[in-house]
Amino acid sequence: MYGSQDIDVCIHECRASTDDDIYVATLEPKRNLRLLDLTHLLEEDVTEFESLDMAIHMLFLARSHSYEISRAIALAAKEAGFDGIIYPSFFSLIRTGGHPFETAYGMSLRRCHPDREKYAEAYTIKNFALFGRPLENDLVSIQCINRLVLTQVGYRGHFGPVQY
Question: Of 138 and 54, which is predicted with more confidence?
C-alpha cells in the first residue's frame, strides 16, 4: 500500500487527472509499525564516492532503471520483519524546488551543510509503502475517506537548451 505525506505529490505520482474519481484516506496505525526509513540521513566518515547515504539518495532520484534495486531493498526489508518502508519520493526535488546534488566547493551540501539534517529534510518528501494487505491484516485503521475534486493544477518551470 502506497502513501505520502504530501497530497500534491500523491496525486502526481498516481498520475491522476481531472476525469478521475479520487479518494483520499486518512489512516492510523493500530500498533507501532516497524518501518525501514530510507530517508534517514546517515552519519558516515567516508567520501561522497563511498557514501551509502549518497547512494540511497541517488537511487531515489534515478529513473525507472532503479526500480529493480528499490524492489530488492523492499523485499529484503519484508523478509527481515519490517511492516514497510519509508522512502523519498522521486518528485521530492520538483515539489520542494531543490536542486539535485547541490555542492559547495565540490562537496555535497547533504553531507557538509552546517544544519545538514534540516537541509536534507527540507528537500525530501517522505512516502511510505506497507507490505501485504495492511487493512485486512489489521495493521492500520481508516479514520476517514474523502473525495478529492481537482479544481486547479499549477506548474512552475523555465526553458532550457535542447540537445540533439
Answer: 138
Whether residue 76 contacts residue 70, with contact meaning beta carbons closer than 8 Å, is answered with: no
Residues 6+ apart with CB under 8 A from 45: none
Domain boundaries of the chain, sorted by first residue: 2-14+33-130
Is residue 24 within 8 Å of 142, Cβ to Cβ? no
What pTM value is reported for the model? 0.81
3-class DSSP assignment, residue 114 = coil
The 3 state secondary structure assigned to 132-162 is CCCCCCCCEEEEEEEEECCCCCCCCCCCCCC
Do the Cβ atoms of 93 and 61 come closer than 8 Å? Answer: yes
Please check whether residue 88 is in contact with residue 124, taking contact to mean a CB–CB distance below 8 angstroms. Answer: yes
